[in-house]
Amino acid sequence: MRFNEHIEFTIGPQGTEPYKGSNHAAGYDIHAAEDARINPHLTIVVTTDLKVLLPYGSFAKLETWSSMAIKGLQVQGGIIDWDYCGELKVMIHNLTDYPYYINAGDRITQMILHQVGHPSI
């Protein structure tokens, strides 16, 4: 098993390196690796061409950007466990009556790190 102390990203050829918008940002900006169309009232999975190695004892949560929420889009699910090794994919639901278009390179979610607590039961 791996026990890393820092977050590490593996970026594929279509991926964009995640970054924090400022030193005080809550999470990392995650970008779409491909163009996508989200039809009204449907959910699609958007690829990122990105893998993440989380610090030991943490998990990450994918959250909806407020700028996307105001347009009627919502990130679904989004818990990334510490031991997940696959590509990050983002489920986005369109709550509107109109299609929404995502371009490769668009910010589609924010990934926020959390510490896992293991209280005694």
TrEMBL record:
<dbReference type="GO" id="GO:0006226">
    <property type="term" value="P:dUMP biosynthetic process"/>
</dbReference>
<comment type="pathway">
    <text>Pyrimidine metabolism; dUMP biosynthesis; dUMP from dCTP (dUTP route): step 2/2.</text>
</comment>
<keyword id="KW-0546">Nucleotide metabolism</keyword>
<dbReference type="GO" id="GO:0004170">
    <property type="term" value="F:dUTP diphosphatase activity"/>
</dbReference>
<dbReference type="Pfam" id="PF00692">
    <property type="entry name" value="dUTPase"/>
</dbReference>
<feature type="domain" description="dUTPase-like">
    <location>
        <begin position="18"/>
        <end position="120"/>
    </location>
</feature>
<keyword id="KW-0460">Magnesium</keyword>
<dbReference type="InterPro" id="IPR036157">
    <property type="entry name" value="dUTPase-like_sf"/>
</dbReference>
<keyword id="KW-0479">Metal-binding</keyword>
<dbReference type="InterPro" id="IPR029054">
    <property type="entry name" value="dUTPase-like"/>
</dbReference>
<dbReference type="InterPro" id="IPR008181">
    <property type="entry name" value="dUTPase"/>
</dbReference>
<dbReference type="InterPro" id="IPR033704">
    <property type="entry name" value="dUTPase_trimeric"/>
</dbReference>
<comment type="subunit">
    <text>Homotrimer.</text>
</comment>
<dbReference type="GO" id="GO:0046081">
    <property type="term" value="P:dUTP catabolic process"/>
</dbReference>
<dbReference type="GO" id="GO:0000287">
    <property type="term" value="F:magnesium ion binding"/>
</dbReference>
<comment type="similarity">
    <text>Belongs to the dUTPase family.</text>
</comment>
<protein>
    <recommendedName>
        <fullName>Deoxyuridine 5'-triphosphate nucleotidohydrolase</fullName>
        <ecNumber>3.6.1.23</ecNumber>
    </recommendedName>
</protein>
<keyword id="KW-0378">Hydrolase</keyword>
<comment type="function">
    <text>Involved in nucleotide metabolism via production of dUMP, the immediate precursor of thymidine nucleotides, and decreases the intracellular concentration of dUTP so that uracil cannot be incorporated into DNA.</text>
</comment>
